[in-house]
Structure formats: structure tokens, C-alpha cells
UniProtKB/TrEMBL annotation:
Keywords, in A-Z order: DNA-binding, Transcription, Transcription regulation
Membrane-crossing residue ranges in chain numbering: none
Protein name: Response regulator transcription factor
SUPFAM superfamilies: C-terminal effector domain of the bipartite response regulators (SSF46894)
Organism the protein comes from: Pseudonocardia nematodicida
Top-level taxon of origin: Bacteria
PROSITE patterns: HTH_LUXR_1 (PS00622), HTH_LUXR_2 (PS50043)
Record domain HTH luxR-type: where: 140-205
Length: 207
């Protein structure tokens, strides 16, 4: 639950691929992972709280789904579900593609916990994976971007997990203006989606 008592998964989840339904979560659509554009179109229409992306099969399929979701529905977090012992390259590739988190477990209760964390706007990783992600950016290849005061405000609210509409209401802006700010932030940080943006903001000490 959010601090205000609302369920972060109140709009249900979409499952892309053969991942089993996690405990206690309402699935509003179960889709094949291909074609990726079809998954993104359905998610854009249904506007779920979260998308679970199965990565127990070919990694390119899962990464294509995440990239399509990042492009079409950047406000909808994606949690990748991979097999236990999945290699670290998959984890990093998934985060770079825009995933909010990665679960490497067959424990459906654990997947449900990580799903709620991801839907709340927080990075969500199985034990040990967060360190892998942080280590990958421990020595940034580029300096911290120069942000305007408004971009800094928007970034903080993105890290808090607010949607563009919620940020717009908080800052008394139009949702389109907020989306423009978010897109500029993504370009400045050189990342494809909100999950990676949140990760870098925390790593750089900006949030």
C-alpha cells in the first residue's frame, strides 16, 4: 500500500509471456510476448499499474517488449521475471532498456512483493541484484547533467513514483509540459526510461 492507503496495483497488471500469476495480484490481460508492439498497444489501452515481462525465454524478446513499453507507455513500470541464477548481463540490459526492476525467483509471493515495490515507483530487485545495478554505474561515464530548477523538481517527483498527471497537479503544470520535462531528463541522462532515470538520480545523489 502507498502511504495514503491506496493500492499501488489497483489498476491490475498485464503479464507478457508465460510467467505464472503472482499471489494476490489481479491480472487484467495475459499476452504473448511477441510482437512487442502489440503488447505495448494493449498496455497503452488498458493502462495497468504494472507490466510483468517474462524473461525465462529468449532475452531479445523480453528486451524488445521493455523497449516498446518504454517508448509507448513510459509511466507504466515494468518488472522483468527471470529464472533463478539469471546472468547479470540480462539484469543490466533490462534496466538499460527501461525496466523498473528484475525478479530472479520462482517464489510467486516474492514476485508479488517486488511488483508492489515497482508499481510504487521504487526500483525492485531480487536480493543481490540491486548491488549489481549500482556497481554498473559506480563510476559514471559522464558528468552529472546540468538541470534547471523545474527539471530538478520534476526529477524528484519521478523518483517518488508520481505519474505525469500527478506531477502536473503537484506543480500546477499541464501533463504535456511534464512529459516534455521528463523527455528532456531522459535525454540529458542518456537513459531510455523512468526505471533507469530513477536509478541514476539516486546514484548521483540527486534524490
Amino acid at each position: 500500500m502507498h502511504d495514503d492507503g491506496t493500492d499501488p496495483l489497483g489498476r491490475g497488471i498485464v503479464v507478457a509471456g508465460p510467467t505464472p500469476q503472482p499471489d494476490g495480484l489481479r491480472v487484467v490481460a495475459r499476452l504473448p510476448a511477441t510482437p512487442a508492439d502489440a503488447v505495448a498497444s494493449t498496455v497503452a489501452r488498458l493502462r495497468p499499474s504494472l507490466v510483468l515481462v517474462d524473461a525465462t525465454g529468449p532475452r531479445d524478446v523480453a528486451l524488445a517488449v521493455i523497449a516498446a513499453l518504454t517508448s509507448r507507455t513510459p509511466d507504466t513500470p515494468a518488472l522483468v521475471v527471470a529464472a533463478p541464477g539469471a546472468d547479470h548481463r540480462l539484469v543490466l540490459d533490462a534496466v538499460r532498456a527501461g525496466a523498473t526492476g528484475v525478479a530472479t525467483t520462482t517464489d510467486l509471493a516474492e514476485v508479488a512483493r517486488l511488483a508492489r515495490s515497482a508499481a510504487s515507483g521504487r526500483p525492485a530487485f531480487s536480493p543481490g541484484l540491486a548491488a549489481v545495478v549500482l556497481e554498473s554505474v559506480a563510476a559514471p561515464a559522464q558528468p552529472v547533467p546540468d538541470l534547471s530548477p523545474r527539471e530538478s523538481e520534476v526529477l524528484l517527483l519521478v523518483v517518488e513514483g508520481l505519474t505525469a498527471r500527478q506531477i502536473a497537479a503537484r506543480l500546477v503544470l499541464s501533463p504535456r509540459t511534464v512529459e516534455n520535462h521528463v523527455q528532456r531528463l531522459l535525454r540529458k541522462f542518456g537513459v531510455p526510461g523512468r526505471g533507469a532515470l530513477v536509478r541514476l538520480a539516486i546514484e548521483y545523489g540527486l534524490a
